[in-house]
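Re: [help] complex structure
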Amino acid sequence: MDITTTAAAVNAVYGNLGVIGYGLAAIGPGVGVGLVVSKTIESIARQPELAARLQVTMWLGIAFTEALALIGLATPFIFAVPAA
Amino acid sequence: MPRPQEHKLFTQALNLLTEATTEGGGGFEAPSINEFFPAPIFFEGTPFEINRIMLIRFLITAVIIIFFTLWASRAQKATKAGQLVPSKFQMIGEIALNFVRKSIAHEQLGEKDGERFLPLLTTIFFVVVGMNFTGIIPLLNIAGTSVIGLPLVLALVAYFTFIYAGVKKHGGHFFTSALFPAGVPKAFYILVTPIEFLSTFILRPVTLALRLMMNMIAGHLLLVLCFSATSFFLFENQSLVALFGAGTFAFGFVFTLFEILVAFLQAYVFTLLTTVYIQLALADEH
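Output below.
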């Protein structure tokens, strides 16, 4: 790639780094929530009579895991440089 | 693979959207964080500015008070008259109250402690449900919990309640057992104690407030995006591109249904977490 096309590509990129940050922050919780739910489904399949109690634990697990993604969503606002 | 014609139509629509957004002159209005800071209506310039969201909160507070007064007075009248079959309106209230009582308080705390903390848990649950629900009520259209004030107050109430519960039961031992968990080799306390302090006494209230607020913000922004795109496609275009409006409207409708689920779920999670924190503080062994 020569210099002009690189410059053109760089010029075409605009937006906010916070968006990339949120994307990164969402990876871990995404995997985590998936794991929590899949294990709960497995457990319910093994012991359907425990379904109610397992679901409560599942919501708790999801709430704790999800918090990371939500903190990721909040940080761009918290650390934003106020416009002059 | 989309056929070339469709592809062309799609890129045309996308170009229209980006053009309208970057030019900013009429047309498509992308949602921004300013949605949550509407212009003040009363008392402008004082610390007690009342804006749209505050008015919605007052409205919901009034609605909750009216509903609970009606439920309570009718229940009293019915027991005096010896009438055992509740009306439909009464049934809704009793089912909702019983949900918090049986499947949250009694399940997690047991009958005795559950009854002790039931008024607080019921209040938290119904306030959060009511305030979340305004996000999907037409003409109100914004959740009372989507600005940090209300979630923060509720989280602080939960925070001081679980500390109160722990201190009342275990005294100063509550803090030592929370910060220095038993069964850890002494040298590891250098690592464990700061982590426990951060997670128990700082991150718990912060995540409680943030989880609720961010869910409501994200939901509101999604709905605004869907419906403002619908209005842009349908009313500002005469060509075939207007058909995209039907698609964005369908997405908006589905997300509205999803928001109903989220409103209940977040209230449930908030109340459940408060209960679990109280339960952990009351537990004999940490």
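Chain B has one domain: 49-282.
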